[in-house]
Design a protein that fits this description.
0% strand; mainly alpha; 6 helices; single chain; elongated
């Protein structure tokens, strides 16, 4: 596995993002934001005025700005990792197309369920909810990397 440095770098990025996601989930769960996707929640005129007049959390705008930049960087990184893995023949021969398709389907179903729960059950759209898509993408890449590691190790032991 040492000669596959790209996968090890992917693991490091996955760990870093998950630490960031858990930090946002635990420490900054009270930060309410307006959704970037307005089909997620119904933003009425009254809610918008309430949002503007609500009490602010210290450094809220800085935290929201950092979160949006981190989300963009990690989303692009995970997309590049994903496309690198599926475009590389030596990885795909070990992982298999079936595992890739199953990972994508499971992530899509979880995203749809979280979309429905946020739309119909969440009172407010919180900052960590904006990171769900990136979290799911990181889990797909993690699944592919770990599948490669397991299958590669198994294929070496069989030789």
């Amino acid at each position: 596995m040492k000669k596959y440095k790209a996968l090890m770098i992917s693991l490091i990025f996955i760990i870093l993002f998950n630490v960031f996601f858990i930090t946002m989930l635990i420490c900054y769960k009270d930060i309410i934001v307006l959704p970037t996707n307005f089909s997620l929640t119904n933003v009425t005129k009254e809610y918008y005025f309430w949002y503007l007049d609500r009490p602010r959390i210290n450094n809220e705008s800085v935290i929201i700005g950092i979160t949006s930049v981190v989300k963009l960087i990690f989303s692009l990184t995970f997309l590049l990792d994903f496309f690198y893995i599926i475009s590389n023949k030596k990885y795909m021969n070990v992982i298999g197309k079936k595992n890739v398709i199953i990972s994508i389907i499971i992530a899509f179903v979880i995203y749809c369920l979280s979309f429905i729960l946020i739309k119909y059950k969440a009172e407010h759209y919180r900052l960590f909810m904006d990171l769900i898509s990136t979290e799911l993408l990181s889990l797909v890449v993690l699944n592919l990397v770990l599948t490669f590691k397991k299958e590669y190790k198994y294929s070496i032991e069989m030789k």
